[in-house]
């Protein structure tokens, strides 16, 4: 019997569909010898929940699951029906996966202790960012952070397991539900993006080794709040207009961030008179995106310090956020620094 080696099909009859997320995770598992497969499984659990939320989002109009749920979350924000559905889906996936001991969610008042003392990871998640845009068919997303617990496996979770700065993240990512659904994540070894193929039910690698342009032509900020900005932010936005940069603001954090990551730009949600500590949440919004942008060559700050170095002191702590292309973020920092130095000199 003659045995021939496998020859890949060279015809045009069957094109390559690329590498699946599952295969990519297995391929990269060697980067994390300490994880013994648990982190890989956790990423798969998140991907599974994202597929389900993608399905629910796509049929929201038909299934009457758009609109308000009739309750408010801990942030005082009106919950949408899909907020609740997404929260349930991710909670189930993470609890049944067996790798997580605790979850911090935007939709929950306190830490969810899964009573899984063998779980090695803590997940902080915004299950559905920008959900108020669902009814008008604008892109929304999921944001997640993954931390290794600090206390020994087998013991009850403690505050030190939860209140970790962003520089302790072992992985972070987001899912964008838009014209196509994408999952973008990093484990500290670069950033990779995967696009969901509905007919096959798989995420395929579509954006390998993503890099943020060092500079850009886009600035993203809610200009309706300009009367509440600090003078330095107002001056920076004026300089953007003078240079004829493009104003692009969707109002969904994931969508705005994703565009600027690909095309180059800066996203700003600064402190305001109404929200002097900022509005975005540190643990499950800012930290995740900060890790991603730094791995892609960009930068993230609250205007005074690196986002990833902020020590959290409360579960739903808020922070100002300036994030995006390195040169543009540095321009904002420089403007704030120079303003501070001028103010100190004047006072003396």
Shape: globular
Radius of gyration using CA atoms only: 21 Å
Question: How many independent structural domains?
Answer: 2
Query: Helices and strands: which structural class?
Result: alpha+beta
Number of helices: 9
Name of the CATH class of the largest domain: Alpha Beta
User: Going across the major beta sheet, what is the strand order?
Assistant: 4-3-5-6-7-8-9-10
Largest sheet: 8 strands, mixed
CATH topology of the largest domain: Fructose-1,6-Bisphosphatase, Chain A, domain 1
Detail the poorly predicted runs.
Answer: 342-348
* Beta-strand proportion: 15-25%
| Full CATH superfamily name of the largest domain | Fructose-1,6-Bisphosphatase, subunit A, domain 1
Distance between the termini: 93 Å
Helix content: 25-40%
């Amino acid at each position: 019997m003659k045995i021939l080696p496998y020859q890949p099909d060279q015809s045009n009859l069957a094109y390559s569909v690329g590498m699946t997320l599952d295969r990519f995770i297995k391929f990269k598992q060697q980067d994390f010898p300490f994880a013994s497969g648990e982190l890989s499984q956790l990423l798969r659990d998140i991907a599974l929940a994202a597929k389900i939320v993608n399905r629910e989002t796509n049929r929201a109009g038909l299934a009457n699951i758009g609109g308000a749920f009739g309750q408010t979350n801990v942030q005082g924000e009106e919950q949408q029906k899909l907020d609740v559905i997404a929260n349930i889906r991710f909670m189930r996936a993470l609890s049944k996966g067996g790798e997580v001991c605790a979850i911090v969610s935007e939709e929950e008042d306190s830490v969810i202790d899964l009573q899984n003392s063998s779980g090695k990871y803590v997940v902080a998640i915004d299950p559905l960012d920008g959900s108020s845009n669902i009814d008008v068919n604008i892109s929304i997303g999921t944001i997640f952070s993954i931390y290794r617990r600090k206390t020994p496996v087998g013991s009850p979770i403690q505050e030190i397991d939860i209140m970790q700065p962003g520089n302790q993240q072992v992985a972070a990512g987001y899912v964008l539900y838009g014209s196509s659904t994408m999952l973008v994540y990093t484990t500290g070894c670069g950033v990779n993006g995967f696009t969901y193929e509905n007919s096959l039910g798989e995420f395929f690698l579509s954006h390998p080794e993503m890099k943020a342009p060092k500079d850009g032509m886009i600035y993203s900020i809610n200009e309706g709040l300009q009367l509440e900005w600090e003078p330095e932010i107002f001056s920076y936005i004026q300089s953007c207009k003078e240079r004829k940069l493009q104003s692009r603001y969707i109002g969904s954090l994931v969508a705005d961030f994703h565009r600027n990551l690909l095309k180059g730009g800066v996203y700003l949600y600064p402190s305001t008179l109404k929200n002097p500590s900022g509005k975005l949440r540190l643990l499950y919004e800012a930290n995740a995106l900060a890790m991603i942008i730094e791995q892609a060559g960009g930068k993230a700050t609250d205007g005074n310090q690196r986002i990833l170095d902020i020590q959290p002191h409360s579960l739903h702590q808020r922070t100002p956020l300036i994030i995006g292309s390195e040169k543009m973020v540095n321009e904002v920092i420089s403007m704030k620094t120079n303003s501070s130095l001028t103010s100190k000199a004047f006072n003396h």
